[in-house]
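Figure 6 in text form: structure in, sequence out.
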């Protein structure tokens, strides 16, 4: 099925950009800063849980459990591609400050360019859209529900940890928060 192949390609592309688009040693490092509060570990665990959910979709399909119409799969592909673009854009704009783990350097300033003009965490929104879109491409609503709940929950925790860190590390961040949305404009 073409939708499945596209979903798999987007999924592979997500991990490819995670390992290739980070610039600088700090950005590529897996060493968590004190402010990380194990959020990186939780994200990795969420990725495993969601990957298992995605893999279970073919089994659920054979049992005819929780199926969506095919158009939902195509919508999922579109959502995942939008998320992919947003994730890449976010990584490019932040450059060396787009780290895997939560940490702040002394030379770091608040970035207000690109998607950061409206959203404080567009890279996280991109990830949620990628995972949710790929889950929708399985045309299984149970898989989509699991992926969405897990991804949204882990990124809300990550955002709380990151904002706490940034508020203590950079006086400008409080002003930046007043003029932007955390994740979804007009909602959150």
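Output sequence:
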């Amino acid at each position: 099925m073409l939708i499945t192949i596209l979903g798999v390609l987007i999924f592979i592309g997500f991990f490819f950009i995670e390992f290739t688009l980070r610039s600088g040693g700090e950005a590529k490092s897996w060493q968590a800063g004190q402010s990380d509060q194990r959020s990186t570990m939780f994200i990795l665990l969420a990725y495993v849980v969601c990957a298992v959910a995605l893999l279970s979709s073919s089994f659920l399909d054979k049992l005819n459990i929780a199926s969506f119409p095919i158009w939902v799969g195509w919508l999922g592909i579109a959502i995942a591609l939008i998320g992919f673009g947003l994730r890449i854009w976010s990584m490019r704009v932040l450059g060396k400050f787009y780290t895997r783990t939560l940490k702040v350097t002394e030379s770091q300033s608040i970035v207000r360019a690109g998607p950061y003009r409206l959203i404080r965490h567009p890279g996280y929104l991109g990830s949620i859209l990628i995972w949710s879109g790929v889950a929708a491409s399985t045309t299984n609503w149970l898989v989509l529900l699991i992926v969405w709940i897990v991804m949204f929950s882990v990124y809300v925790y990550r955002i709380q940890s990151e904002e706490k860190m940034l508020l203590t590390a950079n006086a400008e961040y409080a002003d930046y928060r007043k003029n932007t949305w955390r994740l979804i404009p007009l909602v959150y």
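Caption detail: Residues 2-20+34-178 form a domain with the Four Helix Bundle (Hemerythrin (Met), subunit A) fold (CATH 1.20.120.1630).
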